[in-house]
Amino acid sequence: MFWEYDNGYFKALLDILEFVNSHSEIINHDYRGNKKYTLLINLIKYLAKNPEKRELFKKYGGYVELIVNDTEIINLKEIN
After folding, report:
1. CB atoms within 10 A of CB 47
2. Per-residue pLDDT averaged across 8-26, rounded?
3. Which residue has the higher pLDDT, 13 or 64?
4. Domain ranges of the chain
5. Which among 61, 56, 59 has a CA at the least distance from the CA of 77?
């Protein structure tokens, strides 16, 4: 039962929260008001549509860099 939480939706939510925490200064500085939530919703949509990027996101636990055009996510890569 607990392995489902570690590998499933709960892990995904923890990874997204880790992304928000590790990028909080940038998100709070560059994205004001609703734009910050739009970015997070777009991240979830991007991960849902791109399985290879979702695996990368899972592998690094949210420690990734997003390439964004306004609020549209163009790419996701490992932080160097």
Report:
1. 20
2. 77
3. 64
4. 2-78
5. 56
